[in-house]
Design goal:
mainly alpha, rod-shaped, Phage shock protein A (PspA) family protein, PspA_VIPP1, single chain
């Protein structure tokens, strides 16, 4: 009898937890996180490209007399 009560309690707890996790909201949050990561990656790429252009320009300036 006690085991049956525990099983019912566990199933009720699992049901509540399942209701709290809305897959659509979780997916939307994942998309927002990916967009933020993409923005940060694009900013880093722009910084690296600017650094490469600056280095190339400085190297060309030193080669010219």
């Amino acid at each position: 009898m006690l085991k049956r009560f525990l099983k019912v309690g566990q199933s009720n707890i699992n049901s509540v937890i399942d209701q709290l996790e809305d897959p659509i909201k979780m997916t939307e949050q994942g998309i927002r996180d990916l967009k933020k990561d993409l923005q940060a990656a694009m900013e880093s790429l722009a910084q690296v490209k600017a650094m490469a252009m600056r280095t190339r320009k400085e190297a060309n300036a030193k080669q010219r007399p």
